[in-house]
Design brief:
The complex is a heterotrimer of chains A (373), B (281) and C (270).
Chain A lengths: L7 H17 L9 H7 L1 H11 L4 H10 L4 H13 L16 E6 L50 H7 L29 H10 L2 H12 L8 E14 L8 E20 L2 E13 L3 H13 L16 H7 L2 H9 L6 H36 L1
Antiparallel strand pairs in A: 1-2, 2-3, 3-4
Chain B lengths: L13 H16 L5 E2 L13 H10 L5 E6 L6 H14 L2 E2 L8 E5 L12 E5 L13 H9 L4 H14 L10 E3 L3 E3 L9 H4 L5 E6 L4 E5 L5 E3 L26 E5 L6 E5 L2 H8 L5
Parallel strand pairs in B: 2-3, 2-4, 4-5, 5-8
Antiparallel strand pairs in B: 1-9, 6-7, 6-10, 8-9, 11-12
Helix pairs in contact in B: 1-2
Chain C lengths: L1 H7 L10 E10 L2 E11 L4 E5 L6 H8 L7 E7 L5 E3 L5 H9 L2 E4 L3 H4 L6 H11 L5 H14 L16 H13 L5 E5 L7 H18 L2 E6 L2 H7 L2 E6 L2 E7 H6 L4 H9 L4
The chains are: A alpha+beta (373), B alpha/beta (281), C alpha/beta (270).
């Protein structure tokens, strides 16, 4: 005899307990600490901070632990936490030209003021799995260069900008308040400030794929990596109560400036155009992809025909948020049996009407052939 | 005072609630019109009811009694999860009985019991835009609503009849509100559409991921779109509930064995229990 | 057929132009789309706008049909109520309604003028539904009647235009526009890209509609033969300006401007 299904509440509680157990894994293995994640998986922590839109290494590390390594789940945790935080205001724009550089390269010139500084990069490693890292591995001390830490390194774009070879960064001097899509819903067509914010929070994989597509011909922008720099930048904030600026500390940022296809007009000499990417921590791939997309999405502004997906503002910005995307994709797991029931009913009705119509036609054919005889 | 003092009452901060309430008031003033709002990130995923939760959080008071259903049932996992969320962050009383609730948050069904003027029905909405699948561009659909340019909607219905002999939409069946805006009622079965018309309760619709709120004030005229010679038809109920005998409620089909055996049971669990006299206090 | 016709045509003969454009110009940055164009269209009159690629004729059509805003100049239109109004003073809703009822637009590429994912019947019925027709049977009957008039077999009514030939698609476009009895139809190279024999059929259709329904039209074409066949008056454009205009037969038989002479003499003699 059928009894109406109950027990959802108990099932959920049991599922959470099981989750906690699986998270811990084999108890013979030492438990992972958030500090270990913060120190030794910092690139994952960087991604979570970037897409979580919150700079806090410890919280991001905790989120990764709680999420069992699922980075989108960790990003979600950080975003949900962010929602609860009070907003004091906005900092002054970051001055990346005074960055304490730990890595700085440019593909546009062989050598330039400030030099090419490789920093900690996978770029030239040979991707060979190293069994020594399985357990505790000895770490050599890197040699220090002479000359101290302070390196004067003006942006490449500033250098060629001084010669008028590249467009100025528009909007920098504007007094208009910067938009915030966590406070106001996004509308289309959108301005560059909101686009950049959406891209900064956007899923690295999605941005990477779209950036890649522009290089393969879906909206070519002829990019050159003019500047990639990573290091510490000071946060400067001006509280209303004080009326003067205070430095709150430093954070690590990665900045990428792409130098793109030149443009000119009847009343304007041709100049290179720009694409910008900025990320929390050392997140180079994301910063580069972001710069590629920033430029592609400026198609309308620069009078280019927008034909490729990467140039389609509504497409890119509506779908780049991993938290929104995963929410909706995974929501298909929720019960849909009522809507499904509605479809089943209609389908059965249509099928019976179709069968009925067939029977009538067949009967008519039979009747006709009988009459013909 | 909230049960969990680490969070504000019902989780959202007061500024956010104010912002949402402003959107709700605007929505009530323009029945059926989708008001954009700055949806917050919530502790449950987008697509899992964050819009409904934000609307409920904004209107919930300490003396409210909350009911949460999904597919008509109080005990489905998502309904349980959301109910627990409000128990934890707001400490409000909750119930499974429709008639005892002051706020009912629902996914995909309207309760069978008649609602009253004292109640608010909050719908969870995945895609608020009824024209979305005909026209993917947001600026264009906004223009269509502004200019009351709904020809495309009827073209879709025409095509259904030309192809299937029937209008093929069985849930999220579009309606015209107060003679002006075309609205998506959320993926409730079309069986439930007539309940929205002239309803004494306030009906609020929240779409978190798409960032829209819309509303039906009490006693609003809500008409399902159709043609004069193909009028809107409620899906006929071909069976009776095997537990309580109801013959005019929406039924769930339960597969009972692998020989094609099945039975039909009320989708609205509270309705079914009440009829059987089994409703828990 | 006649019953539906008399529903919408004004009974009062009117010498006032249906459409009047004055000093229309459109610039795209430094580039000239068209410059200082003025013209009048009267009821039942067909005007051909001819010129080579880049002459500005398509830009002019987009301006006249209010699909783009001019950089300068004005357009006024005599509406069905007899009142002449400045088109750009109307609200967007009013302009959209105009374009959907009293006016028509036939595109060179049928995909711009049709919904390829909607059946032929649905395409023709769309305008009726947009102006409030709510009876499926009546919409279908009216759509069927128009499909017959443009010689599309009614058993194709529920097929989608992506299964139609080029000529059929153009005839479908015409039907889609005619269903609300427009008084003025804009056409942009309506037979462009079609085979010669197919072109003839579409042109015949247009010609018969013009005479049967008193349709006025502005037709953009680079083909002088089409201009001669269909139009009463002709405007010759070059580099954005109108360099010659007048009665079609007169201009084509006795062109004044050197450029017009060049165009006329360039027609291949068969």
């Amino acid at each position: 005899m059928y009894v109406a299904v109950k027990g959802g509440e108990a099932a959920i509680a049991a599922a959470h307990e099981l989750l906690a157990k699986e998270r811990r894994g084999a108890t013979a293995v030492p438990e992972l600490t958030a500090a270990q994640i913060r120190e030794q998986l910092v690139l994952a922590v960087n991604r979570v901070m970037c897409e979580g839109s919150l700079y806090d290494l410890d919280l991001a590390a905790l989120a990764i632990k709680q999420a069992r390594g699922d980075l989108i789940e960790a990003i979600f945790l950080l975003r949900a936490y962010r929602t609860t935080l009070p907003r004091f205001g906005a900092s002054a724009p970051f001055d990346t030209s005074s960055m304490q550089i730990r890595r700085r390269i440019s593909a546009t010139f062989k050598d330039l003021p400030g030099g090419q500084n490789l920093g900690p990069t996978f770029d030239f490693t040979h991707r060979l799995l190293d069994p020594e890292l399985t357990e505790h591995a000895p770490v050599a001390r890197p040699q220090r260069a002479e000359g101290g830490d302070d390196v004067a390194a003006p942006h490449v774009t500033t250098l060629i900008g001084a010669q008028g070879l590249i467009e100025a960064n528009t909007g920098r001097e504007s007094e208009a308040p910067v938009g915030d899509l966590t406070r106001d819903p996004m509308t289309f067509p959108s301005d560059r400030d909101l686009r950049l914010q959406a891209l900064a929070r956007g899923d690295e994989g999605f941005l990477l794929a779209l950036g890649y597509s522009t290089q393969r011909g879906y909206g070519r922008t002829h990019p050159f990596a003019g500047e990639i720099r990573m290091g510490e930048v000071e946060i400067v904030f001006k509280p209303d109560e004080l009326g003067f600026e205070v430095a709150l500390g430093t954070i690590t940022l990665t900045e990428c400036e792409m130098v793109n296809q030149f443009k000119g007009g009847a009343d304007k000499a041709p100049q290179f155009t720009r694409g910008c990417g900025l990320t929390f921590g050392h997140s180079e791939r994301k910063a580069m992809a972001m710069a590629l997309l920033d430029r592609a999405l400026r198609a309308r502004e620069l009078g280019e025909e927008a034909v490729a997906p990467a140039q389609d503002e509504e497409f890119v910005l509506s779908h780049c948020d991993s938290v929104q995307a995963t929410g909706f994709v995974e929501h298909l797991k929720l019960p849909h049996y009522v809507d499904f029931q509605a479809e089943l009913t209609l389908l059965r009705q249509l099928r019976s009407e179709w069968a009925q119509a067939r029977r009538t036609t067949d009967a008519a054919i039979v009747g006709h052939s009988e009459a013909a005889e | 005072m909230s049960a969990n003092s680490a969070y504000n009452f019902a989780y959202l901060d007061e500024q956010t609630k104010r912002m949402i309430r402003r959107a709700i008031l605007k929505a009530i003033a323009i029945p059926g019109y989708q008001v954009p709002f700055a949806s917050r990130e919530m502790p449950m995923p987008y697509g899992w009811g964050t819009g409904g939760v934000q609307v409920t959080a904004a209107v919930l008071g300490a003396n409210d009694v909350l009911k949460v259903i999904d597919q008509g049932a109080d005990d489905t996992t998502n309904a349980v999860s959301i109910r627990k969320f409000f128990e934890k962050t707001a400490g409000v009383a909750t119930t499974t009985r429709t008639r005892d609730a002051t706020i009912i948050q629902t996914r995909h069904r309207i309760p069978e019991a008649q609602l009253s003027e004292e109640q608010i029905l909050v719908y969870q909405v995945p895609i608020p835009e009824p024209l979305r699948f005909l026209e993917p561009r947001e600026p264009e659909t906004r223009r269509m609503h502004a200019l009351e340019d709904y020809g495309l909607m009827h073209v879709k219905l025409y095509e259904d009849i030309a192809r299937h002999g029937h209008i093929a939409t069985t849930y999220a069946y579009p309606v015209k509100v107060d003679g002006r805006y075309v609205m998506d009622p959320s993926p409730t079965p079309k069986f439930d559409n007539p309940k929205m018309d002239d309803c004494p309760a306030l009906q609020l619709f929240g779409a978190g991921r798409e960032k829209r709120i819309y509303a039906l004030p009490p006693y609003t005229c809500v008409v399902s779109l159709d043609f004069e010679d193909h009028p809107f038809e409620r899906t006929p109920i071909a069976a009776k509930c095997e537990l309580c005998g109801a013959d005019s409620a929406f039924l769930d089909e339960i597969v009972t064995d692998d020989q094609g055996g099945r039975m039909f049971v009320c989708s609205d669990t509270d309705y079914c229990e009440s009829r059987r006299g089994e409703a828990s206090p | 057929m006649t019953a539906l016709l008399s529903e919408c045509r004004p009974l009062v003969g009117n010498d006032q132009p249906l459409l009047q454009a004055t000093g229309l110009s459109k610039f795209f940055g430094p580039r000239v789309g068209c410059q200082d164009v003025s013209l009048e269209v009267h009821e039942g009159e067909v005007i051909a706008v001819v010129g080579e690629s880049g002459s500005g004729k398509s830009t002019l059509l987009l301006l006249l049909s209010t699909q783009q805003l001019p950089s300068s100049g004005s357009i006024s239109c005599r509406m069905r109520d007899g009142v002449t109004r400045d088109l750009f003073r109307l609200t967007e809703a009013e302009r959209r309604h105009l374009l959907r009822t009293d006016w028509g637009f036939v595109h060179q590429d049928a995909r711009l003028g049709l919904r390829m994912g909607v059946s032929a019947g649905g395409n023709v019925g769309e305008r009726l539904m947009a102006v409030g027709w709510r009876h499926y049977g009546k919409i279908r009957a009216e759509a069927q009647a128009w499909l017959e008039r443009v010689e599309i077999a009614t058993d194709r009514m529920d097929d989608r235009p992506d299964t139609f030939s080029g000529g059929m698609r153009q005839r479908l476009q015409v039907a889609k526009n005619m269903v609300t009895h427009p008084r003025l139809v804009f056409m942009d190279e309506p037979t462009g890209g079609l085979d010669v024999s197919v072109q003839a059929r579409v042109l015949d259709l247009i010609r018969s509609f013009v005479s049967d329904y008193g349709l006025a039209a502005v037709i953009v074409t680079h083909d002088l033969a089409i201009a001669r066949l269909l139009s009463h008056r002709i405007l010759v454009m070059r580099q954005g300006r109108v360099i010659e205009n007048g009665l079609t037969d007169q201009v084509l038989d006795d062109p004044r401007e050197p450029y017009t002479q060049l165009l006329v003499s360039s027609i291949l003699q068969t």
